[in-house]
Amino acid sequence: MEQVAHPLQGRCLTAKLNGVLIGKAGPYIVRKGPFGLQSEGAPIHFRKIMIKEL
Question: What is the extent of the structural domain holding 17?
Answer without folding.
Answer: 1-31
